[in-house]
Amino acid sequence: MRASDGRGKIITMIKNKITKIRKDKFGPENVVEVHNPEIGMKGFLVIDNTVLGPGKGGVRMTESVDVTEVFRLARVMTFKNALAELPFGGAKAGIVWKGGSPELKKQFIQSFAEEIKYLIPEKYIAGPDVNTGEKEMQWFAEATNNWKSATGKPKNVCCKVCDKSGIVKEQCGLPHEYGSTGFGVAQATKIAIGLKGLDIKETKIAIHGFGNVGTFTYKILTQMGAKIIALSDLSATIFEKDGFDYEIIEKIINDRKTLSNYPKGEKISPEEFWALPSDVLIPASVTDVINEKNKNEIISKIIVEAGNIPMSESIEEELFGKGILIVPDLIANAGGVISSYCECKGHSSEEMFEIIEKKITRNVEIVLEESLKKNKNPREIAFQIARERIEEKTKEV
Fold this sequence. Notes:
Layout: E1 2-4, E2 10-13, E3 30-36, E4 41-49, E5 55-56, E6 59-62, H1 67-83, E7 89-96, H2 102-116, E8 124-125, H3 134-144, E9 158-162, E10 168-172, H4 180-195, E11 204-208, H5 212-224, E12 227-232, E13 237-239, H6 246-254, E14 266-268, E15 280-283, E16 302-304, H7 313-321, E17 325-327, H8 329-332, H9 335-345, H10 349-374, H11 378-396
Helix pairs in contact: 1-11, 2-3, 4-5, 4-9, 4-10, 9-10, 10-11
């Protein structure tokens, strides 16, 4: 089906009959595919549910992203925002990106933004995700000519707003480079460790993925006294049984280098990572990184899902059945979208971190305590809470 946005541009609307996308009472409301053949841009936007507010979710740029993956991520955002009690619905965007120059990337981002801006910001607000950060969000906002069209913008990208009392204030970006998501993951991990009866200072943690989320999760947990025994990125997988040298890792992070530059520890294969003797496993990389090939290798007591959909629900249920306490993505990594809310409200970075800690601590405690009490998968409990909040709001509309 095709539809015009009112400016003569043609946008491909994908029907819900697409494989693995089935419309239910929650959504999706809009599934959109856009193309710019002049530069080879192809992208997807799924607006799942807007009962609580405009759909909120990041723009992912990978070579393999497709509409099914974007839908799965959009549905997670629907429940993630409901759980965090934010005035956002669920959405997600994806651009097929095989790599290229910064100039080409900017063209892709801005072409995509221009094609979907008729839905912004009433139906969709963008944000950072895999291969997108503060710079890309600035490009996105520039293309739509709307400061409110994206969050996670650089701190020096500001606008003047007038509050209800008539006072003009300045609102500025709160980039995810501040580490909001990783900070929240660390808070969720701390709560899970405590509820499992462990001492964080004697807890061994393995982190898979060392981008923005993984690096800040590492920093905060190390500062809490936890021992990080394994790190993995595309360049290397390293086992360091006595914990990593913080100063060396910090320099690697600050210099934007990869883990292959770490001179110590034992270099192991990516496959060996999953069988390491950690107490806590934190997947902070890509979708379905825990799968049929490695699920039986995992011996950790706790899994904290820092990345979105690191495993299928069936595998998650299987691991929970083996006694592993799992903190699902929709509460563990909600720091990023809570930061987005704070940016929309004009909060400072200090206020943002306080709000993230408060909301994530509260929700993780509620979900995990109920899980341990009833021996139910935490995701099932989290979904139930989120569904009830959405359904209650639906009745009011």
